[in-house]
Every structure is written in C-alpha cells, then in structure tokens.
Amino acid sequence: MISTSDGRHDNLMTNGFNMPVQHGGLIGFVLGPWNYSFDTLRDTRECVIAIPAVELAEQVVDVGNVSGADVDKWERFGLTPLASASVAAPLVAECFANIECRVVDDRLVDDYGLWIVQAQHVWVDDSKRGTGEIHHRGDGTFSENGEAIDLRERMTKWPSLID
Q: What is the pLDDT of residues 3-31, one digit of tens each?
C-alpha cells in the first residue's frame, strides 16, 4: 500500500505494481492520475510504501475498491496511521514494514505513471509479519510465499483485470 499526506488529509491506497530498481534504496511503482493520491504525490514528492502481511489481504483489496475522495480509508478499514520520521505521509501500524520515500525521478510519470522513489527510512516489525507477504498477480489473485490466494470476487473496482 502507499500512503500520502498533503498536511491536512492522509490517504492510503492499494498498489500492486512496484519493484526494486537498483541498490541504494531505489523503488519504482505505478501511480497515475486515475488515483486519488496522484496530486498529493506530485505536489509533496513523498510517500510511505507499507508492506502488509497476508493476514491483511482482504483489507488491502478493499482499500483499493474505494477512493480517498469519498471515504476516510483509515477509519473505514480499521487501519492506524503513525507519524513518520522523515516524510509527512503516515506509516501503517498494522503493516510489518513501512518505507518512507522521496521522489527522485518522475520522467516516466506522464507516459506510464511510473515513479522512482528513494527509501529514506525503513521500519520493520517482525511481530506483524504473520505467515508471510502477499504478492499481487494482476488479476485478483495473490500468492503467499508462492501459494495462490484467489480474491477475484473482491476486485469489484477493477473487473477488466479479471480473467
């Protein structure tokens, strides 16, 4: 998930398209103008990438099915924002890892929605790791350390991605 803050409103979104780019803490992810968080990320140039354990899989999908323009996702889904050390965007208390990031390259944003950020601070709480990480397969299914989790029926906002 990715959290952003404009100083007045904290938002949280689900993000399934991300990758390490190179050593030195560079991470790439797709977030475009179709996402409510886009303007805040463009204006503040900072965010938190929060990595949930598999136990949060259904909440993570549900967060992605509504817009922060319409609801307070933190309250609606029982998630807890925590203060970050180096960015305004909050950490997600329930996630086992949170990475505070600043944008370092936005040259591919207009064409592809691809942002390159650099980790500023990393928080890890192994007690929240649960049974493992979830990985989005792109069609409403997820894998948990290699095992598939089918949540296609919950992907109500993105029916075009489901086979």
A: 999 999 999 999 988 999 988 899 999 99
Confidence (pTM): 0.88
Q: Which of 74-87 are b and which e, b meaning 16 or more Cβ less than 10 Å from the residue's Cβ?
A: beebebebeebeeb
End-to-end CA, the chain: 23
Q: What phi and psi values does residue 160 have, to the nearest 5 degrees?
A: -70, -15
> Which pair of structure tokens corresponds to residue 100?
């505070």
Q: Report the CATH number that the domain containing residue 77 is assigned in CATH.
A: 2.30.110.10
Exposure of 34 in the CB half-sphere (CA atoms within 13 A): 11
Separation between Cα atoms, residue 24 and residue 95, nearest integer Å: 23
Q: Please name the residues in contact with 39: beta carbons below 8 A apart, sequence gap of 6 or more.
A: none
CA distance 61 to 64: 5
Model confidence over 116-147: pLDDT tens digits? Answer: 999 999 999 988 877 788 888 888 888 887 66
As a whole number, mean pLDDT of residues 91-116 equals 97
Name the 3-class secondary structure at 141.
Answer: strand
